Amino acid sequence: MGTPQKHNRHSPSAPSRAAGGLRPRPRLVALIALLLWLAISGIGGPLVGKLGSVQTNDNQSFLPSGAQSTQVARQLKDFKTDQTLPLFVTLEKDSGLAPADLAAAGAYAKALPDTAIPGLPGTLRDYLATSAPIPVIPSEDTKGILIPVSLSAEKVQKSVTLSGESKERKISDVIVTHLRGSRPDVSGAESYVTGPAGFAADLLTAFGGIDGVLLLVTLAAVLVILVVVYRSPVLPLAVLFTAVSALGLAALAVYPLAANRAITLSGQSQGILFILVVGAATDYCLLFVARYREEFTRGTRLQAITTAWKRSAEPILASGVTVIVGLLCLLLADMGNISSLGPVGALGVGAAVIASLTLLPALLLLLGKAAFWPAIPKPSEKGQHRGWTRFAEKVTRRPRLVWMTTALALAALALFVPTLKAQGISQADFFTTSVESVEGNTALQRHFPSGDPSPVQVIAPASSASAARETLAGTEGVNPRTVTSVKNAAGDRVLLSATLTHGSQTAEAEETVRQLREKYAAQDGAIAVGGTAASQVDTLNAAQHDQRTVMPAILLAVFLLLALLLRSIAAPLMIVAANVLSFAAALGVSALVFNHVFRFPGADASTPLLAFVFLVALAVDYSIFLMVRAREESLRHGTERGVVLATGVTGGVITSAGLVLAATFAALALLPIIFMAQIAFIVGFGVLLDTFVTRSILVPALTKDIGDRIWWPWFRSRS
Q1: Within this chain, do residues 280 and 154 fall inside the same structural domain, yes or no?
Q2: Cα distances (Å, whole numbers) of residue 90 to 114, 138, 220
């Protein structure tokens, strides 16, 4: 290949780091970059706190757009019936209800419509779906009372800003909060405000921690890890400032798009956005700082920054593009909450890449030696990675035995993947903590076991209405006495509704929906079945479709990008196979922990897909960090020695980055939602498994065993 030209870093003409300062022009460029980022942070920072005001968390935004349940939900407004958001005031008295208790409940229900809600114009009556008196329904066991309140969905889904508050709140949430502070005066009774309106209010409260606690805990965890890694108080703050600035840039892009409904931002995607930006930005900063520290011991400050940027830009850009493309593959998903995460996450990762390649170099250039204080690196031509190099030499001493043993162990863990119960969870199991809507629903079921407020809904052409009604009433699992029908304004469609004999979130209800759809498909393809049970069926179907579609698309995208980056076909195949094996092992361990340690009732149907995205598309960063350096060293020293040197140099930064990413995802467990807790564990454990086992043991050993063929077909060995 020829003898590479040596940099004249130590010649008399080279500027001295000790004697000379930084030339004015580079300092000016760095100052301009810093000022630009301060402006970005000043504008984007406040928008981070306002993202919650542009969230969309309604059911239609989560359901597949083409599903029958979504079609029914969209058409409900065309019928001569006000869409309602049910709210239930439930009372429970174990000793039994006395006549005075029923009288007190009746007085409460009678006065309820004329109750003034602080912060809202008018009274509660102005937000009800009907002017009929609110009923009081005692249970057959005389221990429970149900007071159903039908809110007008159109009115209460609007948002208001209350006096003294900065964030907008949905009117339904304001009403629920007020009623929970003003309960029926029934001595000795437990009272609950529950139903769909109560559940929605509890969900908003759960996601309310995203703006504050989640972000603070994430940043605190990252700061502690960085202080341990760098043994310096200055450098961690520079990295953290870069990550926070990247979040400001992401908010600057996401907020206007979400406000104008160009993209959909949910509470789920907002929480993941915070984690993605902070985690990815910190990982990229760790890679840049590691290369800068290495170069800092060899030349001037400007030379170190320049060389570090040249050597780090390619893997950082490649990692960022790979993650962005992987996230954009989510646009192929049917589920709204999954597909909407794609562009939101992609914008966040893009912001992380830009900040790590512009703001961090500017800060390091201006700080100089002070960035590393008090552990300032000493000038040395030798690497500072002896421990990891020795570890790599041991791992690659008998590479075939090492990689086969490691692969078999990971495969054994992957055998438990089928035990993951990802068939969806009911609202009663949605939270990890006790919330009033769930407690109230449990009490409601104890005393009103046959009462299910969520009917099955069927929209049929008027010409098929009679046959559709007969089919609905005659299907097992449907209560025929509850069938009702309403025509739309045009008179060409009919809405049929009926309650189910089993709860709308049970497997029996889902089977009833499937039977109805089979029968209607044979009668008239224009008939659609919706409702809560139908939404569950459509969610499961969409999740299965998304796994079949999105997962292969991500693998193909990652492979093609790695092939372009590494200029090889064999290496990307090896990396993708290792990623998939590592993901499967992490999912298998998670299934064991969820079932036998945490005893979760199940998992959301989208959990495996999102875990796959983060553990394959995001964790590929570490493969890129390792293999880009391995190729660089292999061109100089040959593959067998090159992979040892690359593992030694990148081992510390990869494991540090893995710890940071695992810690950031672990912070999601702070949100009292099972879905977030499960994603936190799967990704957190999976990243640690990937960094400490797959990247540190499996990939180096496998690369050493394959040798120069790993770079096939474009590798040119030393000559």
Answers
A1: no
A2: 20, 10, 42
End-to-end Cα separation, the chain, in angstroms: 6
Last-in-domain residue among 484, 509, 538: 538
- Write down the residue that tokens 């709140």 correspond to: 169
Residue with tokens 């969905």: 153
Could you list the beta-strand ranges (E) of 527-678. 528-531
Q: How far apart are CA 204 and CA 200, in angstroms?
A: 6
Pick from 624, 628, 626, 618: nearest CA to 686: 618
Residues 87 and 186 in one domain: yes
Residue 23: DSSP 8-state: -
pLDDT confidence of residue 472:
93
pLDDT of res. 229: 84
Instruction: Count CB neighbours of 387 within 10 A.
Output: 11
3-class DSSP state for residue 655? helix
Residues 678, 555: one domain?
yes
The reply to whether 20 falls in a domain is: no
Domain CATH number, residue 393: 1.20.1640.10
pLDDT of residue 63: 72
Kindly give, in sequence order, each residue whose CB lies less than 8 Å from that of residue 596, ignoring residues fewer than 6 positions away: none
Per-residue burial over 306-332, b = 16 or more CB atoms within 10 Å of its CB, e = otherwise: bbbbebbbebbbbbbbbbbbbbbbbeb
Please check whether residues 583 and 459 belong to one and the same domain: no
- Domain containing residue 135: 81-204
SS3 116: strand
Q: What is the pLDDT of residue 57?
A: 64
Residue 55's pLDDT is 74
In the numeric block, the tokens 């035990």 are attached to 419
- Single-letter code of the amino acid located at 351: A
Contact 555, 326 (CB under 8 A): no
Rounded to an integer, what distance in angstroms lies between the CA atom of residue 690 and that of residue 406? 12
Domain count, the chain: 4
Half-sphere exposure of 431 (CA within 13 A, CB side): 18
Angle between helices 465-474 and 507-523 (to 10 degrees): 150
Distance of CA 9 to the CA centre of its chain: 47
For residue 205, with 0-12 CB atoms within 10 Å meaning exposed, 13-18 middle and 19 or more buried, which class applies? Answer: middle
Q: Under DSSP, is residue 216 helix (H, G, I), strand (E, B) or coil?
A: helix
Q: Which residues neighbour 249 within 8 Å (Cβ) at sequence distance 6 or greater?
A: 40, 44, 351, 354, 355
Give the number of other Cβ atoms within 10 Å of residue 1's Cβ: 9
pLDDT averaged over consecutive 10-residue blocks of the chain (719 residues)?
Answer: 41 40 76 93 88 70 79 82 82 92 93 92 91 90 91 84 74 92 89 90 77 78 87 90 95 92 84 89 90 79 87 89 92 86 94 95 90 74 68 91 96 96 81 88 82 79 91 90 85 89 81 93 89 88 90 93 90 93 96 93 89 86 86 86 88 88 87 89 94 93 91 63
C-alpha closest to that of 309 among 319, 295, 328:
295
The answer to whether residues 246 and 616 touch, using CB atoms and an 8 Å cutoff, is no
Tokens of 320: 């960022």
For residue 543, with 0-12 CB atoms within 10 Å meaning exposed, 13-18 middle and 19 or more buried, which class applies? buried
Convert 407-438 to b/e letters by CB count within 10 Å (16 or more is b).
beebeebbebbeebebebbbbbebbbeebbbb
